[in-house]
Automatic annotation (TrEMBL):
Transmembrane segments: none annotated. Pfam families: HEAT_2. It comes from the Bacteria. Residues 1-20 are annotated as: Disordered. This is HEAT repeat protein. InterPro entries: ARM-like, ARM-type_fold. Signal peptide: none annotated.
């Protein structure tokens, strides 16, 4: 949790809870895992009491820790979830980006909690890319069996055309692999990504994620894209997974060409390659899982 210095010439904030509580000072200087361990060691009632105070603090570092703690406690404590929802609006509007990141993470961790969806949809329009990315990642977790016309699904489809590759990647993953929902609009959005180049520098693979999603839906148009990528140098594990999902025997020649004497059997890439070969050998009517 980085230190923050005023950028507008204003003086630093006055004393806050951080300066009065050595334990809190350690949490501010620590990590999200430290906050989780603190909530576990403290107990949910006491942790909730701390979080209620911290999210109201003048210091954004303290508010960040407060929303982190509140998100952890809310996972199994309804009063904490109520507190999180009651203060989510203020958290989404916080001037400090790290606080908004913590709010997005706290909301996005509440599995199947539909009441978090409106706030995450709001955060999809945040000025900060990291906040938006976390909101995208949280939507499939909090959504409860959405339909194709659900506003959250519509928003994710829109993000498939976002200018940020990481957001296209996360949206493709959400729609392609995490949500069991289908529509012509979803398929068209995923198909639009198939020609993108994978890039390690951005750590984003929207084309491969889209291919997995289309293969899961047995979309006939994805075959050509998968077959093409398998013949290029070093196809990623995601492209092998897409091949396994599609389970089309026509992919076997390209997959078999990827076998090499120096392949290590316990290498995840090699394991996925062999899984894809087995799936394509069995064909699409096989009942095995991928």
């Amino acid at each position: 949790m980085p230190d923050r210095e005023p950028t507008d010439g204003s003086p630093p904030p006055g004393p806050s809870a951080e300066h009065q509580d050595p334990a809190l000072a350690e949490l501010v200087a620590g990590t999200a895992d430290d906050v989780w361990r603190f909530t576990e060691a403290t107990g949910r009632e006491q942790a909730l009491t701390y979080a209620q105070k911290w999210i109201r603090d003048a210091d954004p570092d303290v508010r960040e820790v407060g929303f982190m703690a509140l998100g952890w406690v809310a996972l199994n404590h309804p009063p904490a979830l109520k507190e999180l929802l009651d203060h989510a609006d203020a958290g989404c509007s916080d001037v400090d980006v790290r606080v908004r990141v913590a709010v997005a993470q706290a909301l996005g961790n509440q599995g199947g909690e539909q009441r978090c969806v409106p706030f995450l949809l709001r955060l999809l329009n945040d000025a900060d890319v990291e906040v938006r990315q976390i909101a995208v990642g949280g939507l499939p977790i909090v959504l409860d069996d959405p339909t194709a016309d659900d506003p959250a699904v519509t928003a994710l489809v829109g993000l498939l055309a976002d200018q940020e590759p990481t957001l296209r990647d996360w949206a493709a993953f959400a729609l392609g692999s995490q949500l069991d929902v289908d529509s012509p609009q979803i398929r068209a959005g995923l198909r639009s990504l198939l020609s993108e180049l994978d890039t390690d520098t951005a750590e984003a693979y929207p084309a491969a994620e889209a291919a997995v999603g289309l293969a899961r839906r047995a979309d006939p148009e994805v075959f050509t894209a998968i077959a093409d990528r398998l013949t290029r140098p070093d196809p990623t594990t995601l492209w092998l997974r897409a091949a396994a999902e599609l389970a089309d025997p026509r992919l076997l020649p390209a997959l078999l060409q990827l076998r090499a004497p120096d392949n290590e059997p316990d290498d995840p890439w090699v394991e996925q390659l062999e899984h894809a070969i087995a799936r394509c050998t069995a064909g699409p009517m096989d009942d095995g899982t991928s």
